[in-house]
Design goal:
CATH superfamily of the largest domain: HUPs
Structural class: alpha/beta
CATH topology of the largest domain: Rossmann fold
Distance between the termini: 58 Å
Number of strands: 14
CATH class of the largest domain: Alpha Beta
Amino acid sequence: MEGERVPTEIPAEIREEYEELLMGSVDALPEGELLKQLVRARTEGRPLRAKLGVDPTTPDIHLGHTVVLRKLAQFQKFGHTAVLIIGDCTGKVGDPSGRSKTRPRLTDEQIAANARTYAEQAAKVLDMDKAEVTYNGDWLSPLCMDDVLNLTATVTVARMLERDDFSRRYLANEPISMLEFMYPLLQGYDSVAVRADVELGGTDQKFNLLMGRTIMEAYSLPPQSILTVPLLVGTDGEQKMSKSTGNYIGVDDEPNDMFGKVMSIPDSLMVTYWSLLTGKGRHEIEAVEKRLASGEYHPAEAKRDLAEILVTLYHSAAQAGEARAHFDRVFKEKDQPAVIPESAVPEDAVQDGIVWLPRLLTALGLAASNGEARRLVEQGGVKIDDVVVKDVKAEFVPADLRDSVIQVGKRKFVRIV
């Protein structure tokens, strides 16, 4: 990281800790502050309180979300306290970071349903027995009008308009709601409530994280330092990992799907994925990078090892080994899986005695929706008995599909019985 220098008089173990915490990060601000905090923590015998807030705006998370969770886990590794805040209150406001228009508000029911899954999924990365998990509605919901006015008085409109997405929308005469202005203030107040020493977030959160420093100072608390991590590029090698673009790997993906998706990433992302997603230490990552650069480690083999590590992290070592064998059998050896799931034609896939292919794919769970199924067919991603079907209007009589093997993409198979 540019501008970050570790003084030679710092004890070796603190220097090692500092360098590992910086590994894979983008910003550590103010410059050198985290190092000073680590030294103070060792001197005072008090662990740092490292805060991460997550809004439950969707029911599940993908590997892009785990980048910052893994950074939080690194703080745990060095004996610091991980403070995970589930934003049941801020989730109803909606984070405007990176938005070109006002985000739709979620209902209490949607927030509650999503929040239930977040802690479960975070447990795949964090040691939840040692983490503080709390909900910001516990302190934000009871605020009275005087409290809200005191909070809003800490920041000017001019400061808010320093934010890139706000300033662009303001100059373009596009609406910005007062609710959106409240979001950075509420996130900053979270830091006051939990007395954060460090706050973590993606690079798109930089404004909000710095706002936390301003608000902590206004409440006479030592301001937190901030540590940002990059936004993970998706499997397409171009855009940020996102469900909306389909370039994501979900933490709850089935082992074979997860393994296959990792194998599909461009070689150029290999070291980045190793560094940001595996939880490996700095020396291990440097060794992988060196072996790849020298040609000793073939990219395909490195990708297989990476995929096996990730499946192990989110499932088990046994399932990871099975997924690797499955991938090699289906793709490396160009064969169908040894065991193919079987299903009758679902009743809801049949209308007037006819089966429409996209509807069948959805009913079988091979596509999330009819729209996604249509795209898969149009893109040549669907085969019946190893023959590509690209006609989205394709219809069949159920009896004609009996004993057929339907394949979607490279990893999904169903035999019709």
